UniProtKB/TrEMBL annotation:
Protein's UniProt keywords contain Signal: yes
KW Signal (keyword) present: yes
Signal sequence segment: 1-20
Species per Swiss-Prot/TrEMBL record: Carnobacterium viridans
Assigned keywords, A-Z: Signal
This protein's name: DUF5626 domain-containing protein
């Protein structure tokens, strides 16, 4: 099984499939084509945490292995007008990085000083061919898959980046992994951006940066946006990339556009 270096800071993404003509390299989904962007407005990001907000945050943190004690301390930070470390910093600032094998690759959790987290994952052709295919892994999930001797195809797969309890961004994609040949991203579709507490997003862009892997660069599709948290913290640049190459696919969260 291949070994992977740390993957840049990520957060959960969800997307809704759309079927249309396949985009070529450098294709862009314009602002007019953006859909399924949701926003739960509650005034200032920190001023109006409702019981429902608190419960949603705690539930998502618990699902990702954060203890009740740490969850409460994070809620207290928000109530005091202080953002989670994971809301402000990239994965290079994480104090621990946990890599857990899955049926199709690895799940990676980045934990920051205050206990907040972000997650990502990889899928590997080697893992897919040697194990029963799973349709769920943090980072890439859902859709349909097919595999055979030396190949794996993912269709309408959901690529996501999540900051549990805070926000999530995602899009859908088709891609293929082939032994002895360059891996490809053939399609990207509708996406979803959710701010769980409150805030705004703008300048959303979904595009295929490189459709086919080359001898020195992997294929990449990216969804980018600017997120305004409120509470005096200004605007954050966040994006999630689907990286395909070397017989592996990974969801990578970024702190750049």
């Amino acid at each position: 099984m291949k070994k992977y270096s740390k993957i840049p800071f990520l957060v959960t993404l969800l997307a809704i499939p759309v079927f249309s003509t396949l985009p070529t390299n450098d294709s862009v989904v314009s602002a007019s084509e953006i859909s399924d962007i949701s926003l739960e407005e509650s005034g200032s990001f920190f001023d109006n945490l409702t019981p429902a907000n608190v419960q949603n945050i705690k539930s998502e943190l618990k699902e990702n292995g954060v203890t009740e004690e740490v969850s409460q301390s994070l809620i207290d930070k928000l109530n005091n007008g202080v953002a989670f470390d994971s809301m402000l910093y990239g994965e290079e600032d994480a104090v621990t990085v946990d890599t857990i094998p899955t049926m199709t690759g690895y799940k990676i959790t980045y934990t920051f000083t205050d206990g907040s987290i972000t997650t990502s994952s990889t899928e590997e052709l080697e893992s897919v061919l040697n194990n029963t295919m799973s349709t769920f892994a943090t980072g890439i999930k859902g859709g349909s898959t097919s595999s055979g001797t030396g190949y794996f195809n993912g269709s309408n797969r959901e690529v996501y980046y999540t900051n549990p309890g805070v926000w999530s961004i995602s899009f859908k994609a088709n891609y293929s992994l082939t032994q002895g040949s360059y891996d490809k991203i053939t399609w990207v579709g509708k996406h979803n951006i959710t701010m769980i507490i409150a805030g705004t997003m703008n300048d959303v862009s979904l595009r295929i940066i490189r459709g086919t892997e080359t001898f020195n660069q992997k294929a990449e599709a990216r969804l980018s946006t600017y997120l305004t948290l409120g509470g005096g913290y200004g605007t954050m640049t966040r994006s999630v990339s689907l990286i395909v190459g070397g017989d592996a696919a990974s969801a990578r969260g970024n702190t750049y556009y």
